[in-house]
Write a structure and sequence with these properties.
- The structure holds two protein chains of two kinds.
- By secondary structure, chain A is an alpha/beta fold.
- Chain A is about 25% helix and about 35% strand.
- Chain A has eight helices and 18 strands.
- In chain A, helix 3 crosses helix 5 and helix 4 packs across helix 5.
- The longest helix of chain A is centred in the middle third of the chain and has 16 residues.
- The model of chain B has no long low-confidence stretch (mean pLDDT about 90).
- Chain B is about 75% helix and about 0% strand.
- Chain B is an all-alpha fold.
- In chain B, helix 4 crosses helix 11.
- Chain B contains 13 helices and no strands.
- The chains are: A alpha/beta, B mainly alpha.
């Protein structure tokens, strides 16, 4: 097995809750008397993983989950409290564009300074100066102090320098969130180039679409722990399910008397294979396997859909749709077919329920239980994909 | 990483940061670099004037000029060293490189300023010697050695204060007071003769005086520049030299020990 690019083992980083700010002499004296009572906060705890050479790994998680600490630890700007980080290869970070920029220096002077900070040899910068200025689009302003730059200009210049780096491992932290759309496209294109050259990329972002497009592996970090990793689609769905529920937009829960129990649910795509991603305009089938512990007359099966941020889209049941349900006893299967699936690209949650005819008894309800994603392969836009046909008759 | 490896591997960064410091120091001022000569010169004139007024004749102007220029070098290294980490929080938190580069680059910038101010100081001292009938010492070629020892001492202070100021922020306030006290116990505006004359009753006092590394350094400057000032054959001077080396080693170790927490504390 070739050496991985990044090896993280039992990595942990703790901060003293009151010690995060700089200590004053007085505090130190007091602390000296009351031996180390301050509480400890673990920003990251017991994280282990390896990143193979050439992989693109996304790191997702809610704010304050420890993503940036992880990147800082890998970059070497922060020292681990426990565990180790080993990296193999030249490492560069797009943690902050324009690191070391001084407002009173001109753009040109800052390019040299910034390049030195990023470890780009001076000759390379001198040789590529024209290209850097061109890329940043700041030809007329390059000899002006960066104090007078707009924040966009500042970032553009920083990025123009940063792309001159030639690392084997690239760490990216939310850089894509700054700048206008054109600039973001440039960033993504550059990162794609790195990918093509077989560089290892670690990408921290809240932009789940980008993560899904770019990465072959996603790490989900929550409250300092690595809670899920692997296939981007699955991890992102897990992320939405656990996190969105926590902040209250979704309520992932299960309840009911279980006289009828939903045992196994499979989401099938158009070819009948289990899937987590579906395509707009094609079919989606929900296969529900149930077990009735006793004979149940006139049960009602229902379903509803919500978007990833908890917006209720649609719900119906066999009662509303006048679908006859035979008495349930023992095992059985219910198939729900959505054809065509009129949802547009995004993450969705499926709720399922089975209850009595008069709604008095909830046998089993799985609220926001089944996440899935939808891809839109056409370029049609909007909230829903409406089945439509055109008829054009020239002349009258 | 050892000090030498850090410097050789990151010499471009070291140089770029030092030149940033130099560029920014006098940016926007009309006289620019001249200030680094005018300030110590102005101070020297003031000291000589008031010293004559208060203490009578005794300390030659050339001695005071040499003393004040050297003192300024140390003061600037102390002040820029103090803020070399705390004032670059952005870099320390975001970019990984040996942190020692920061105090090193600040000290490098000050050394360059000092070297340039010495070039101006030289003809000034020559003119003064001409008017007073003094001569340059035959030991003048040892000047670079004195500067090197002075530099090691200043670097030790810069490293010590850079690290300490991140952990205990009171350091920067304390340093202000300590500097004023230190100025008076160092032979900046006076010389060794002045001390011996005023401490005739206490012959051990000048010996104790040598425990201050700046006493050795400033006296060494004067004796390698001026023919009439011999370097005192004082065993305490050796002790003081040992102190400088010891201080450097300890400061370096302390800095290396503290640096792993810099990003957390800033």
């Amino acid at each position: 097995m070739p050496t991985p690019a990044i090896e993280v083992e039992n990595l942990g980083k703790s901060y003293r809750l009151r010690g995060i700010a700089k200590a004053s002499l007085r505090e130190m004296l007091i602390r000296g008397w009351k031996q180390q009572q301050s509480e400890i906060f673990w920003a990251l705890r017991d994280v282990s993983f390896t990143v193979p050479r050439g992989a693109s790994v996304g790191v997702v998680g809610p704010n304050g989950s420890g993503k940036s600490s992880l990147l800082g630890l890998i970059a070497g700007t922060i020292t681990p409290t426990t565990g180790t980080v080993r990296t193999h290869g030249v490492i560069s970070s797009l943690l902050e564009l324009g690191a070391g920029f001084h407002p009173d220096l001109s753009g040109r002077e800052n390019v040299f300074l910034n390049a030195a900070v990023l470890g780009i040899p001076r000759e390379d910068v001198a040789r590529r100066m024209d290209h850097i200025i061109e890329f940043s689009g700041l030809r007329d302003f390059i000899d002006m102090p960066v104090r007078n730059y707009s924040s966009g200009m500042y970032v553009r210049l920083g990025f123009a320098v940063a792309v001159e780096m030639n690392p084997e491992i690239l760490l990216v932290d939310e850089v894509l969130a700054v700048g206008d759309l054109a600039f973001q496209m440039k960033c993504l294109e550059r990162i794609r180039n790195f990918q093509k050259q077989g560089k290892t990329i670690l990408l921290v972002t809240h932009d789940l679409v980008t993560v899904e497009q770019f990465c072959d592996d996603v790490k989900l970090i929550h409250q300092g722990s690595l809670v899920a990793q692997g296939n981007p689609n699955d991890v992102i769905l897990t992320y939405l399910k656990t996190y969105m529920a926590r902040i209250g937009h979704l309520n992932v829960e299960e309840h009911g008397t279980r006289e009828v129990e939903i045992k196994d649910v499979r989401l099938l795509d158009r070819s009948g294979k289990p899937a987590t991603t579906f395509t707009t305009g094609q079919s989606m089938t929900v296969e529900i396997h149930y077990v009735a512990k006793k004979r149940i007359e006139q049960a009602v099966f229902g379903f509803s859909l919500k978007t990833g941020n908890g917006f209720f889209i649609f719900g119906t049941n066999t009662q509303i749709m006048n679908v006859p349900v035979p008495p349930l006893e023992g095992e059985g299967t219910v198939r729900l077919k959505l054809d065509p699936l009129s949802l547009m690209e995004g993450k969705y949650f499926l709720s399922l329920s089975v209850h009595s005819w008069d709604h008095a008894t909830q046998y089993h309800r799985l609220e926001d239980w089944y996440p899935f994603s939808v891809k839109n392969e056409s370029t049609a836009e909007g909230v829903f994909h409406l089945p439509c046909t055109w008829q054009i008759t020239p002349g009258t | 990483m050892s000090l030498i490896a850090a410097v050789t591997q990151h010499r471009e960064l070291l140089w770029n940061l030092a030149s940033r410091e130099l560029k920014l120091r006098y940016r926007g001022s009309v006289l620019g670099f001249l200030w680094s000569v005018l300030i110590p010169l102005g101070m020297a004139l003031i000291y000589v004037f008031f010293l004559r007024l208060l203490g009578g004749r005794g300390v030659p102007l050339a001695d005071v000029i040499i003393g004040v220029f050297a003192w300024q070098f140390t003061v600037q290294c102390v002040n820029s060293g103090l803020n070399s980490i705390a004032g670059n929080a952005n870099l320390v938190k975001k970019v990984s490189f040996p942190r020692i580069i920061l105090p090193l680059s600040a000290t490098l910038a000050n050394t360059i300023t000092y070297a340039m101010s010495l070039i101006v100081q030289f003809p000034l001292v020559a003119i003064l010697f001409h008017t007073t009938g003094n001569h340059f010492s035959a030991w003048l070629w040892l000047l670079p050695v004195v500067i090197a020892v002075h530099l090691i001492f200043n670097l030790a202070l810069a490293l010590f204060l850079a690290g300490i100021n991140v952990v205990v922020r009171d350091a920067q306030h304390l340093v202000g007071i300590l500097l004023s006290a230190w100025f008076f116990v160092s032979p900046v505006m006076y010389n060794l003769d002045f001390v011996t004359r005023h401490a005739e009753k206490y012959p051990w006092a000048p010996k104790l005086f040598f425990l201050n590394p700046l006493t050795v350094i400033i006296t060494a400057y004067r004796s390698v520049i001026t023919a009439e000032i011999p370097f005192p054959r004082e065993p305490m001077a050796l002790v003081s030299f040992g102190l400088i080396v010891l201080l450097f080693v300890l400061s370096y170790r302390l800095f290396q020990k503290l640096q792993k927490d810099f990003a957390d504390l800033l």
